[in-house]
Amino acid sequence: MRFLCDEMLEGLARWLRAAGYDAQKAPRSARDRDLVRHALTENRILLSRDRDILQIKGAETCVHLLASPDLEGWASELRNSLKLDWLHGPMSRCLVCNVPLQDATVDDIQSMPIDSQVRPGPFHTCPQCHRHYWPGSHVRRMMERLQAFASGQSGAKEP
After folding, report:
1. d(Cα 57, Cα 54) in Å, to the nearest integer?
2. Torsion over CA of 26, 32, 35 and 36, rounded to 10 degrees?
3. pTM of the entire structure?
4. C-alpha distances in angstroms, 85 versus 46, 54, 59, 77?
5. 82: Cβ–Cβ under 8 A, 6 or more apart, which residues?
6. Listing from the earlier edge strand, what are the strands of the sheet with 124-125?
7. Taking 90 as the threshold, does the pLDDT of residue 105 lie above it?
8. Which domains does the chain have, with CATH numbers?
9. CB neighbours (10 Å) of residue 97?
10. Rounded to an integer, what distance in angstroms lies between the CA atom of residue 155 and that of residue 94?
């Protein structure tokens, strides 16, 4: 599944990326008809809370409306309605660029702001923005939240 999240669901896009899904964020102030066209062209599911978007031609085939007011509700809706697996490919995409991560090279690891001798790997790098990723405490907290989304537990706090 590939997603396009409208402006109201930017935070959801980041969590979908954390789960391993290709999730684009809509450009700021994008027109609804442009979002529908983008979703149709790239075979994406357009996630939105805007019921008016369904009035646009073709929207019924690509738009998935979310009713809940918050992230935990959206996670539950997607798990139930789309059978979304919140543990699909955790921490395999850049949270900023949405690009699949690559294994870090020795040079990448040496340039990271951590002591790789102390921190366990694996280490990854985004080939587009060159951000570095490693399993620090933030990853543990994010994984706990993804596991809560996957199991239907709510109340997990945002890291």
Report:
1. 8
2. 150
3. 0.89
4. 17, 26, 24, 12
5. 1, 45, 64
6. 102-103, 124-125, 132-133
7. no
8. 1-91 (3.40.50)
9. 15
10. 25
Residue 158 has pLDDT above 90, yes or no: no
Closest by alpha carbon to 99, among 71, 130, 78, 121?
130
Of 64, 48, 53, which Cα lies nearest the Cα of 1? 64
For 82-107, the DSSP string reads S---TTSSTT-B-TTT-PBPEEPPHH
Q: Within a 10 A sphere around the Cβ of 26, how many other Cβ atoms?
A: 23
Cα 147 vs. chain centroid, distance in angstroms? 14
| pLDDT tens digits, one per residue of 2-19 | 999 999 999 999 999 999
**Number of C-beta neighbours around residue 14 at 10 A:** 18
Residue 139 reports pLDDT greater than 60: yes
Q: Is 32 helix (H, G, I), strand (E, B) or coil?
A: helix
3-state helix, strand, coil in the chain (%, to 5): 40, 15, 45
Two tokens, residue 68: 């809940």
Residue 4 near residue 35 (C-beta atoms within 8 A): yes
Longest CA–CA separation in the chain, Å = 56
The set of residues, in sequence order, having a beta carbon less than 8 Å from that of 100 and lying 6+ positions away, is 92, 93, 94
